């Protein structure tokens, strides 16, 4: 989704939306399709790509088909529910990695957030839980291409017939990157073709019932003789899905957690809401729980208000001449909106530089704010109108679910020398210039709960396996082969406990037992 940065190289008419709204509040402009188109991207042809992605497609039938396909086939609430086990798995992966990080002082959490979001989106995209090396290879391929395109491709917007010769080496580099990505994606798409052909048989533990690729395989383009998507088009759509849903969410998580580190009283208040909604004996804050937590939602909204991951939306194109706040916008002009300026505007928000989730609670000034912009627009972290983020619902769910579970599991503390700094840096999204490095302290209630459970398992396993009183270190390995140092709480029947005596006890390998429970 390199178009995020293309606005820098194109004619940018950045207009504070407040101005726009003052002129047109509730007017035709907001409801109509006047700004629903996207400007063309001249470099696409040189890259051998077309406009058949949701973000790039012109406002028309192809865009409608592709967008409807994503929203109603993969991101429809009934489909999103099918991925609940995947989210739960990623939550455990995230918690385990954070625990590892936490033992080494200030934890570098950003990379962990990014990896976790990739695990989840890759699974939703290809319908399979992939190993860490493959997920990381996909993330690296996506990132290198995204960065290279955003930094080096803008030049081809100017006189492409000349620049393609002058900068041939850049085109060669980007083609090599595309090939690397193709090598990773095509086998996964083919595996899905095969899986569908066999009607989902044999049942693979790691395969999910539905994936974004499945929905793409069903598409026929009516405008083009009802042909299916080509592999290259599928790869671009998968790429778009991954780019759109990973960095945006991990950046959002980083800013929200940074605010919670900086504001321990808010973190405590959130923790109390979580504890009151969910009992200590439960494994996780479930998705049903998060819907019952108004303060959690307020924290996430306040995070998105103060730190929208994208400070601009994707470029829009004016479909007709229009006048906004006294400015003439000619037909065909590229427009963008200053998302961050808007939600930090002192005329609209009281003390906008402060982090005050309470403003979104009943009685607060932001109580009636609607992020979809259907009533009025005071903030638009997901854009508004027909090109509003197609993943808004699932993005909010991911933010709420992961924030709640991370706060439940750890106390997030500021570390001396690694103080939270809210300076910004422009990457694909607007990230923290000095990455967040908090101290993560396991919540005592959870540690106690684990201790008791550990003890039970140690006793159950001690007969005939280890001498009484031996301290045990154990990991759990699920049937699919992924390992957790701490057993998942709610899945005891399915797990195999691998009991590994601590090295100092001088046990040989044969003393290690696996026990089904
Ligand atoms: C916190 C997370 C997210 C944020 C802040 C965010 C923000 C945005 C923004 C600002 C836009 C541009 C809107 C415009 O041009 O007016 C956008 C577009 C889009 N987003 Fe998101 N997004 C997030 C997560 C996701 C997720 C999880 C997905 C899908 C899995 C997704 C899919 C899309 C798509 C397909 C578009 C293009 C819409 C179109 O052109 O019709 N986004 N998003």
Automatic annotation (TrEMBL):
Main location: membrane
GO CC terms in record: membrane
Cofactor (UniProt): heme
InterPro entries: Cyt_P450, Cyt_P450_CS, Cyt_P450_E_grp-I, Cyt_P450_sf, Plant_metabolite_P450s
The keyword Iron belongs to this UniProt entry's keyword annotation: yes
Superkingdom of the source species: Eukaryota
Residues involved in heme binding: 389
A GO MF term: iron ion binding
Localization annotation: Membrane
Membrane topology: Single-pass membrane protein
Keywords, in A-Z order: Heme, Iron, Membrane, Metal-binding, Monooxygenase, Oxidoreductase, Transmembrane, Transmembrane helix
Keyword RNA-binding in annotation: no
Regions that span the bilayer: 6-23
Family that this chain belongs to: Belongs to the cytochrome P450 family.
Protein name (database record): Cytochrome P450
Organism, scientific name: Triticum turgidum subsp. durum (Durum wheat)
């Amino acid at each position: 989704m390199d178009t995020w940065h293309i606005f820098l190289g194109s004619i940018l008419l950045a207009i504070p939306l407040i101005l726009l709204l003052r002129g047109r509040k509730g007017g035709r402009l907001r409801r109509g399709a006047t700004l629903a188109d996207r400007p063309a991207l001249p470099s696409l042809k040189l890259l051998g790509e077309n406009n058949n992605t949701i973000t790039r497609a012109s406002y028309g039938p192809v865009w409608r088909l592709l967008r409807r396909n994503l929203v109603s086939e993969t991101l429809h609430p009934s489909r999103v529910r099918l991925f609940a086990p995947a989210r739960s798995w990623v939550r455990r992966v995230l918690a385990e990695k954070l625990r590892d990080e936490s033992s080494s002082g200030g934890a570098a959490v950003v990379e962990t957030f990014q990896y976790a979001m990739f695990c989840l989106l890759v699974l939703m995209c290809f319908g399979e839980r992939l190993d860490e090396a493959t997920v990381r290879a996909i993330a690296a391929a996506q990132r290198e291409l995204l960065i290279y395109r955003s930094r080096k491709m803008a030049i081809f917007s100017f006189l492409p017939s000349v620049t393609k010769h002058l900068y041939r080496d850049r085109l060669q580099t980007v083609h090599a990157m595309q090939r690397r990505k193709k090598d990773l994606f095509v086998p996964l798409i083919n595996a899905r073709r095969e899986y569908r052909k066999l009607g989902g048989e044999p049942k693979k533990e790691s395969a999910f019932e539905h994936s974004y690729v499945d929905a793409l395989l069903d598409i026929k383009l009516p405008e083009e003789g009802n042909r299916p998507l080509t592999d290259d088009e599928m790869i671009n759509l998968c790429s778009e899905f991954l780019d759109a849903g990973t960095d945006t969410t991990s950046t959002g998580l980083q800013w929200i957690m940074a605010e919670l580190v900086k504001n321990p009283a808010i973190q405590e208040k959130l923790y109390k809401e979580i504890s009151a909604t969910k009992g200590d004996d439960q494994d996780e804050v479930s998705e049903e729980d998060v819907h019952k937590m108004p303060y959690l939602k307020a924290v996430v909204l306040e995070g998105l208000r103060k730190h929208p991951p994208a400070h601009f939306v994707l470029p829009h194109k004016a479909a007709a001449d229009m006048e906004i706040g006294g400015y003439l916008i000619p037909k065909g002009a590229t427009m963008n909106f200053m998302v961050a300026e808007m939600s930090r505007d002192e005329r609209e928000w009281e003390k906008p530089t402060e982090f005050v989730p309470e403003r979104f609670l009943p009685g607060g000034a932001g109580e009636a704010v609607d992020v979809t912009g259907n009533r009025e627009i005071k903030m638009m972290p997901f854009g508004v109108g027909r090109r509003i983020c197609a993943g808004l619902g699932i993005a909010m769910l991911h933010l709420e679910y992961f924030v709640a579970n991370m706060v439940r599991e750890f106390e997030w503390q500021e570390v001396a020398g690694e103080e939270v700094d809210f300076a910004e840096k422009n990457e694909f999204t607007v990230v923290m210039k000095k990455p967040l490095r908090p101290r993560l302290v396991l919540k005592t209630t959870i540690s106690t709960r684990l201790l008791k459970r550990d003890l039970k398992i140690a006793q159950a396993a001690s007969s005939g396996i280890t001498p009484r009183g031996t301290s045990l270190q154990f990991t759990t390995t699920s049937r699919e082969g992924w390992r957790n140092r701490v057993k998942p709480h709610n899945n005891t029947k399915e797990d195999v406990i691998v009991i590994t005596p601590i090295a100092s006890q001088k046990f040989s390998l044969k003393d290690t037992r696996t026990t089904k429970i």
